[in-house]
Structures are given as C-alpha cells and as structure tokens.
C-alpha cells in the first residue's frame, strides 16, 4: 500500500515538472502578438457632456481610418467630459487588457497620464494643449499641439490685432489647458513689450461671462484674448462680448472656432481664431470628401487628429515593437491634420495659424 502511494507521488511530481518545463519553454505572449493577432485600442472619449463634440469627431475620424486597416480593434468608453468618469472608463478598459489607450482633452488626459506612468501602460492623447511636463512622460505620448502653438499666432501672424496693441485683456479657462496657454501668452506679452492690464479666469462650463467682460471693457485694453475648451464656452464669450459692445478686437487662442460648425453659430460677430492648415481650402480634400460621404457632415480638426492617430498606431503595430518605443522612434508624420513633428520625446505637435472669422 505504501509503495502504491509512493508511486503516485512520484508520478505527480513528474507531471508537475513536465508542465513547468513546457510553460517556461513557451514563448511569452506580448500585446503585439496576441492569440487573435489583433491590436486592441481602448479609447476614453467625451461622448456626452459639454465636450461631446470632440468625442464624436475624434471617434468618427478613427472609424474612417479603421475602415482601411486590419488587425486593429477599438473599444470606446465615455469620459462624460469629466476627470472622474474618465478615470473610471480608463480603469474599465485596462481590465479588458487593451494594448494601448487613447484619450483627449486636458481635463481627462492629464490625470490619466499620471496613472499610465504609475501602471506602465502606454497612453496616446490628443486635443491636449497642456505644457509638455504636465502630459508627456515615459508612457504617455501626445499627438496634437502645445501651448506655444496655441498662443504664438496671436503675436506673430500678420493679420493679428495684437501686433499693434499695447495693452491686453486676458480671459482663460481655469484648468490645465487655460493655465498653460495663459502662461505662454504672458511670456509672449512680456517679450513683445505688451502689458496685460486685465486678467481673469472662468470655471469649466461657465455660463455667465457678463461681469468679467464688462471689467475687460473698462480695463483700457486694446485687444481681448481668450482661451476656452468647449463650443459652449467659446460661443458664450464672443456672444456676450458682442452684446455688451466690448469695443476692442477679440482673439481666440484655443482653436475651438477651428470647428466650422461652431463658427456658424457666431455669425455676425467678428473675431480672430487660431486654426490648423487642415481648415484651409484645398487641404486634405480626399479625407473631407470621405468623411462627408460617411457621416453626412463636414469634418473638423478633431476628426483629422482621430484619423491620424490610427495611422500612427498602425505604423507601430506593423513594426512589432513595444508601443512607446515605437512612437518615440517616429520623428514626423504627414497627416490630414497637418505635418506633426516630434519636437520633444513623446510630443508630436502640429503648427497653427490665425484666421479672421466673419
């Protein structure tokens, strides 16, 4: 009886040893060599809430690019335009073992970049103009632009009313985006001998701008610059400025009015707005035609960045390298949003220009 028990014990030990050897000799699976051969992207986008326009357009751009690709699957989750919901959506996607996460807007992407660094999970963000050190790290890559490109056109473009102005009134969103661009505007003002005589901020999704704009009107400024994030904010500011007869040129330094549909809602109000070359006639016409045919509406720059990000992901998927290492190795990408250059490690930026609206 004892001999039989000993025999079974020996057999069990042999089976365990064999299984361990087989497991160790099997090649380790990585994100890029999953069983299905599919590279899975998790997308945390604002599909509802005040920034839903950007979630919809980025998603549409991604879908248009995905129709031409194979081996890439995207799982979408709604950030609801808030940091808390964005983090919940991000965690849900990580539980599904996505290979890369995509997100947008500073309010959501900045906290996600910190989580990505802690968990060593690759993150690709767009529509985020926060300063480089606030968003880019060893696991977070930005494909969009930066505070310098948001602020500079107002101080360099030949049509800008800021060139002749001596005194500036400044209104910015009170978040990472607004603070980053505000600091750059202050830096450029000082370098160009201009004085900021009035400065204020507003909370995200603010509805009433009358009091602060009346103060700007009475500040003695020659020009008014503002930084917003959503169509509701940007339209609220220019419409209120028109109602109170602000009496000075208006310059938007945040690209919200690069969306032509938002511009149409401000008809009859004259102002200046930063934009991408994508919005110029003759640029990315094939993309614009395909987008209109598929979605029944004109695309904006958000759709262009969504499209370009999928093409960037496809480059790295094909190379079979670690995602973050691959992204760092791409120095320039000519996309429909414009030419994106990696100006710093992990930071792709597309330049902007100033346009006169109405």
Task: Walk me through the structure.
Helix 3 (83-95) packs parallel to helix 4 (106-119). It is globular, with a radius of gyration of 25 Å. It folds into 2 domains: 38-146 and 282-351, Rossmann fold, CATH 3.40.50; 150-280, Rossmann fold. The protein has helices at residues 2-25, 52-66, 83-95, 106-119, 132-135, 147-151, 153-156, 176-191, 210-217, 231-243, 260-264, 285-295, 301-319, 323-329, and strands spanning 39-45, 72-78, 100-104, 123-126, 140-144, 167-173, 195-202, 223-227, 250-252, 271-275, 332-335, 338-344, 347-349, 353-357. The chain is built from 14 helices and 14 strands. The longest helix has 24 residues, at 2-25. Strand 3, helix 4 (106-119) and strand 4 (123-126) form a beta-alpha-beta unit. It has 358 residues and is of the alpha/beta class. The protein has an 8-stranded mixed beta sheet with strand order 2-1-3-4-5-13-12-11, with helices on both faces.
Secondary-structure blueprint of this entry?
Layout: H1 2-25, E1 39-45, H2 52-66, E2 72-78, H3 83-95, E3 100-104, H4 106-119, E4 123-126, H5 132-135, E5 140-144, H6 147-151, H7 153-156, E6 167-173, H8 176-191, E7 195-202, H9 210-217, E8 223-227, H10 231-243, E9 250-252, H11 260-264, E10 271-275, H12 285-295, H13 301-319, H14 323-329, E11 332-335, E12 338-344, E13 347-349, E14 353-357
Parallel strand pairs: 1-2, 1-3, 3-4, 4-5, 5-13, 6-7, 6-8, 8-9, 9-10
Antiparallel strand pairs: 10-14, 11-12, 12-13
Helix pairs in contact: 2-13, 3-4
């Amino acid at each position: 009886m004892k001999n039989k028990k000993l025999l079974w014990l020996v057999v069990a030990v042999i089976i365990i040893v064999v299984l361990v050897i087989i497991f160790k000799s099997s090649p380790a699976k990585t994100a890029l060599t999953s069983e299905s051969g599919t590279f899975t992207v998790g997308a945390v986008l604002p599909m509802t809430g005040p920034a839903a326009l950007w979630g919809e357009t980025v998603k549409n751009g991604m879908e248009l690019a995905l129709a031409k690709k194979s081996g890439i699957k995207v799982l979408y989750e709604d950030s609801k335009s808030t940091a808390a919901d964005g983090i919940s959506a991000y965690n849900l996607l990580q539980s599904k073992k996505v290979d890369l996460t995509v997100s947008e807007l500073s309010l959501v992407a900045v906290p996600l970049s910190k989580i990505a660094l802690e968990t060593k999970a690759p993150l690709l963000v767009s529509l985020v103009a926060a300063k480089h050190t606030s968003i880019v790290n060893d696991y977070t890559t930005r494909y969009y632009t930066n505070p310098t490109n948001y602020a500079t056109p107002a101080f360099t473009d030949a049509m800008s009313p800021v060139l002749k102005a001596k005194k500036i009134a400044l209104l910015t969103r009170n978040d990472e985006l607004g603070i980053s661009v505000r600091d750059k505007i202050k830096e450029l003002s000082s370098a160009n001998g201009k004085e900021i005589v009035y400065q204020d901020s507003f909370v995200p999704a603010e509805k009433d701008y009358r009091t602060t704009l009346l103060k700007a009107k009475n500040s003695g400024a020659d020009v008014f610059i503002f930084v917003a994030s959503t169509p509701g904010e940007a339209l609220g500011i220019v419409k209120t400025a028109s109602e109170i007869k602000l009496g000075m040129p208006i310059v938007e330094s945040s690209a919200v009015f690069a969306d032509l549909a938002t511009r149409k809602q401000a008809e009859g109000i004259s102002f200046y707005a930063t934009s991408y070359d994508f919005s110029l006639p003759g640029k990315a016409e094939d993309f614009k035609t395909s987008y209109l045919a598929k979605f029944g509406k004109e695309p904006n720059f958000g759709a262009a960045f969504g499209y370009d990000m999928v093409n960037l992901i496809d480059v790295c998927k094909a190379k079979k390298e670690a995602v973050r290492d691959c992204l760092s190795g791409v120095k320039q990408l000519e996309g429909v949003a414009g030419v994106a250059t990696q100006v710093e490690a992990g930071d792709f930026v597309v330049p902007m220009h100033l346009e006169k609206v109405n």
